[in-house]
Amino acid sequence: MPDLLFLVGKTSIWSHVSNASLLVKAVMVLLALMSVLSWYIIGYKYLYLKRANKETKQFLDSFWRSRDIEQIYKHAQALRSSPVSAMFLAGYTELAKLSTDDQNREKEADLDNVLRALRRAQTHETTKLESWVPFLATTGSASPFIGLFGTVVGIMNSFTDIADQGSASLQTVAPGIAEALFATAIGLVAAIPAVMAFNYFQRGIRVQASEMQTFEQDYLNIIRRHFLS
Q: Are 59 and 85 in contact (CB under 8 A)?
């Protein structure tokens, strides 16, 4: 045990990387890149969802308080990060094209056009909200296995060193095993934040999706009452 502690004390993170085999180094670099990209996505999506939630609340407050649709339209134009605001703008644009004909069939056709515009906007905004988030799920699920692959390679290298040197001493085995375990550690470091962030963002996306679905129904009801009656 003292010998093992002595060996561990002499090592460092850089020594584990620099002394590793080429294949293990490639695994470590891949995991490090996945971790860095994951943290970038986490920071970007956190700020994006936070801004989207804030602007959605602002827009809905304005939408239900104001009775002037032109004022609501101007306010919505300033809230570009809100998916609900984007839906309103799409619906408003289509609403401006409504036919003035009194035939009920044509009015229903106009309402269908508004509905399709709202659905297109909803699909577009949902795609924006979900962009890059699947990468976090991929990182969370794949990183431990990539790290495990590096671990297996490192242990195989340790057995090869034992065979070449004809010795199973701690000095022979420890470096390869340490490299192997370090690859696993990097995999976990990349995976754990990615999984936690993925679950957090999925909840935020579901909240926005629910707001869009509710707004769609409310918006169509208002159009029926005030514009198509």
A: yes
